[in-house]
Amino acid sequence: MPDPLYFIETYGCQMNVYDSELVAGMLNKCGYSKTDDIHNADVIFLNTCAIREKAEDTVHNRLKNLHYMKKNNPQLLLGVLGCMAQNLKNELLESKPYVDVILGPDAYRRIPEILSDRNRDQKHQVDTKLSKFEIYEDLFPSRHEGVNAWISISRGCDKFCTFCIVPFTRGRERSRPMDGILNEVKEAVSMGFVEITLLGQNVNSYRTSEGKFHTLLEKVATIPGVKRIRYTSPHPQDMDEDLLQVMAENENVCNYIHLPLQAGADRILKRMNRTYTQMEYLELVEKIRNFIPDSSISTDIIVGFPGETQDEFIETLKVMEISAFDSAYMFKYSSRPGTKAAEYTDHIEEEVKQNRLQQVITLQKKLTLQQNKRHIGKTLPVLVDKESKKSPLKWAGRTEGNVGVIFDKTNEHPKEIVPVLIQDAQGVSLFGKRVIEKELLHEIN
């Protein structure tokens, strides 16, 4: 008899990607096999995101589409995992009674028990209790073959930004023991991964008795076979010189920092509970560039936060210009029930938010192109990712600064780091040609 099949669909952040890999590992241990065709699945899990209303709407619509599969196959187990399960348990139970399983981010250990009981018990299974201790330390994720491995180093968040639901859906911050993380990195390398991305809601607030984040980063950098290391997302409040020093001293730690700004005006930053001022943020950007002169910096920006005036929005544009971000994730403010910001009475009209978002996007496109053009004429180390979607004769790779590079194939292979002479910048991509060793030596001399 063939193994039963599972299908996992993941929404939201990289932490959800990692959690889906953990769940897949548990399912594999239970004798289930992965299928890429949802119609063949005996178990379907949607791993959900609650950070914005649009993400929730997408999952609601997906569940409506899956209802017909449940009607045609009552034995199908349909589950909702993650932040939306945590945040909207009652709504899901009321409006989607055909959903069998609702598990929050700290309840995934129950999956083997639920699958076992499923043969005897058809009742709904709901567990959205938050844990102060759960870090899934003894579980290893089931990863697809690839270049980059996401590795969670902590769970939860203690910052309580007023716009963010994460502390309520993922609980309080707790860090994994360093040895467990290092063992997971070694296992990822043994599976062929050459790039490691360390994950946390506030990755640089990692703290254990063995050391802080910069200590962990330095230890990961010494593991043989780790060609590149990234991390996301840090909080500006927890960026320190120890971390920047480790980045500057270790060649395989990418010269790239994702540094969420969110807003440029001090009053709005205070309303968001971001714990820094505009000046402190700009000083930090300057410090980063002093420590790591060729670093790339990306950011997050929210426009239309409750009470944001036009002048305060212009402050955000000003900070963007001064910081010259290489890239940005840009969003309209989305009210999340249960957060402090949802209680404000001076919400911004949708049309104003949309207009401000468009201005931010337009400015960032200009800044990204400007920053990318500074690489023209330079030879950069590029990690080969995969074949370009545009041509089977070209590779798609990435710089340390996480910029996509397209170049002609010669004798490279995925997972190699090769020197590429950057010849052009268009949109968000760079274009170049592979530099062979003789040319590189001539260029150096």
Describe this structure in words.
The chain has 445 residues and is of the alpha/beta class. 36% of the residues lie in helices and 23% in strands. The protein is built from 14 helices and 21 strands. It has helices at 14-29, 53-72, 83-87, 89-95, 111-118, 166-170, 178-190, 213-221, 241-249, 266-272, 278-291, 310-323, 350-373, 437-444, and strands at 5-10, 33-34, 43-48, 77-82, 101-103, 125-127, 148-152, 154-155, 174-175, 195-199, 207-208, 211-212, 228-232, 256-258, 296-303, 327-332, 379-387, 394-398, 404-408, 417-426, 429-434. The strands form six sheets. A six-stranded parallel β-sheet has the order 2-1-3-4-5-6, with helices on both faces. A five-stranded mixed beta barrel has the order 17-18-19-21-20. The longest helix is centred in the C-terminal third of the chain and has 24 residues, at 350-373.
Q: Which helices and strands, and how do they pair?
A:
Blueprint: E1 5-10, H1 14-29, E2 33-34, E3 43-48, H2 53-72, E4 77-82, H3 83-87, H4 89-95, E5 101-103, H5 111-118, E6 125-127, E7 148-152, E8 154-155, H6 166-170, E9 174-175, H7 178-190, E10 195-199, E11 207-208, E12 211-212, H8 213-221, E13 228-232, H9 241-249, E14 256-258, H10 266-272, H11 278-291, E15 296-303, H12 310-323, E16 327-332, H13 350-373, E17 379-387, E18 394-398, E19 404-408, E20 417-426, E21 429-434, H14 437-444
Parallel strand pairs: 1-2, 1-3, 3-4, 4-5, 5-6, 7-10, 10-13, 14-15, 15-16, 19-21
Antiparallel strand pairs: 8-9, 11-12, 17-18, 17-20, 18-19, 20-21
Helix pairs in contact: 8-9, 12-13
